[in-house]
Amino acid sequence: LLLFGVNNALIGLLVWRLTRHSAWSLAAAVVAACSPGLLWTHAFALSEPLFLCLELVFLQAMFSYTRGGSLRFVLSAALLACLGFWTRYAGVAFYLSGMLVILFYAQSRPWQERLRHLGLFLAVSVPGSLLLIFRNGMAGGTLANRQLLWHPPEMDKLMEGAHNLWGFFLPSLPPAWNLLEITVALLAALVVLGGVALALSTFSQRIKNTLSDCKLSYLQGAALVAMHGCVYLIVVVLAMVFFDASTIFEARILAPFGLC
What distance lies between CA 29 and its chain's CA centroid? Predict the structure, then answer.
């Protein structure tokens, strides 16, 4: 329950930093507090509430870095990526998102500086994760308690995931509703819109010149959050296909994506 309150406050803070509007930030916090999926995720003593908290702080640090923040935000994000991996193996999404943000979302910095910051990000975050993997190998005889096998998710799992994803925004829906096609279409739209927002806010000088700093910040922040959500979902799907056939698209697994 404590993390539920903290996470709602972090959601409101993140939206406020993106929009600079108190009404939007308050609305985001209220929507998150009323979300059936997030409520269910925080109702049990699982690792997901802590993972969500780390994810939200990680996004704050990365957003601050893209807005001209100092090196301390890179180091903070690196530490959070390590802690996220310690919390759940899906925390590898933090590493991928951090690398993409440093390389492509901070266009105001020269390439030499971005590569140096990328090296520091990996130097701080990777050793802790390797230590955990090594510890698991010594204690349990396996690095991750998984075997590399090909087992793509079945259709019923995809349907369940679509219903659980919609559960973050709507009450329970009838199982007979075929939401898979709608969900796939919305995910594709999210990827396209995230890419367009990134391109417009980062690479188009004309857009930079015409947009106010607040609107430009919103576009870049929205692209960052959308990118991280997509990276997390890709990591989960790849884990299901190659490592863990028992994983299902339940609400707690989809929570980090639904939050984005």
Answer: 17
Residue whose tokens read 């806010």: 201
Whether 107 shows a pLDDT value over 70: the answer reads yes
Q: Long-range contact list for 190-198, CB < 8 A, 24+ apart? A: 190/226, 190/229, 190/230, 191/226, 191/230, 193/226, 194/222, 194/223, 194/226, 194/227, 194/230, 195/223, 197/222, 197/223, 197/226, 198/104, 198/105, 198/223, 198/227
The letter for the amino acid at 226 is: A
| Farthest CA pair distance, the chain | 58
Residue 135 token pair: 């510890």
Taking only the tens place, the pLDDT of each residue in 193-234 is 666 655 655 554 455 555 555 555 677 777 788 888 888 888
- Does residue 216 contact residue 68 with C-beta atoms inside 8 Å? no
- What local confidence, expressed as pLDDT, does residue 224 receive? 84
Asked if residue 162 has pLDDT above 90, the reply is no
The CB-side HSE value for 228 (13 A sphere, CA atoms) comes to 31
User: Using CA atoms, how far apart are residues 80 and 88, in angstroms rounded to an integer?
Assistant: 12
The CA distance from 238 to 151, in Å, is: 10
The pTM for the full model equals: 0.81
Cβ-defined contacts of 139-147 (< 8 Å, 24+): 144/89, 144/243, 146/243, 146/244, 147/243
